[in-house]
Amino acid sequence: MILTKTVILKIVNPDNDLVETMQKYSDGMNYASSVVFQNGKTIGSYKLQNIVYGYLREVIGLKSQMSCNIPRQVSGCYKTLKEQIKEGKVIWKEITFSTYSMTLSYKRDFSISQNLVSITTINNGRKPYKIQSYDNAQQYFDGTWKFTASKVVRHKDSNHYFHLSVEKEVPEKELEYPSNYMGIDLGMNYLAVASTTEKKCKFFAGGHIKYIRNQYKSMRARLQSKGTLSAKRMLKHLSGKEQRLMRDVNHIISKEIVKFAIDNDVSVIGLEDLNGIKESTIHNVPKKKRHNHSSWAYRQLHTFIEYKAREAGIITHFVDPAYTSQTCIRCNHISKNNRHRLEFRCEICGYENNADLNGAMNIEHRTRDFRYILESQGCVSATHTNA
């Protein structure tokens, strides 16, 4: 199993050479993008490289490796656009790229040590830049991690950061019998509720996060009503703060969830498959609550849980979330009338529980069914299957 991570490191001494290289790189990306857009359909990366390589090298002045990277990136972006068009989410349009991001190939475009990153620039070749040393980043330079294609990114604070992508092979954990499973229900009352096969449960975050976000919402409304330049600058500042808040909270919650799983010897964590869930459920949410429903970074939280679990040797599995909040865990009766805000009360058998916990229990149950799929594929240890 391949474990991948992105380590964000601040570049201490960015200069004009780096800034100009990023500008030229975005010029190349936008030129290649215009070629694909005018073609009216996607172009494979090899064919696109043949079309744009000479212009990127001779007119824009990019180095050879960058001129190869750009067609691959642009072609990949338009393939993603094509998939979104098939799903009816967008229409054919020209993709534009900013000057705030540049992708580099390891060894060809950059090399890195714990305190220094050397980057190929347009005017002066490979140049060294100091990177700020972080204690939590030292582990990625111990020789066990492999460096891959990474990015230089200018953040909203106007500082430049190196987004170092790393990966390493970690052993797959053998799923043995008996196994303890855990379901995670995401929501607005609690960011996450966990329930295990052994009926252990835990509630994560909740009211105080909702209170802070409501404060941000009120401030945005006041600033938007003013419409001044200073108000727009403050709105941008608030947006950055709220995104950082969500990211920090998601890191904390995901770490606590995985720790709870480890403490309870959980083998598989079940998560809701969020594909399309926002679009399909938003109309069932009262207008006053739609912002909280649609704007929290649930997918990011899933990603954090997934890679932290993988690092701990725990499998993650995504299940269909349909009706998990309306299904009685005792008698399997499904009805909208079963749920009453924070409470779940089955209209048939009378079973009562916290609504989010009932949802987590249903997700755990669907995740447990995953074992039978693994057994049919021979992925469960034969030694323990008949225990």
Automatic annotation (TrEMBL):
This is Transposase, IS605 OrfB family, central region. One of its GO terms (biological process) is DNA recombination. Pfam families: Cas12f1-like_TNB, OrfB_IS605. One of its GO terms (molecular function) is DNA binding. Residues 163-274 form the Probable transposase IS891/IS1136/IS1341 domain. The keyword Ribosomal protein does not apply. Residues 298-363 form the Cas12f1-like TNB domain. The keyword DNA-binding applies. Keywords: DNA recombination, DNA-binding, Plasmid, Transposition. In the N-terminal section; belongs to the transposase 2 family.
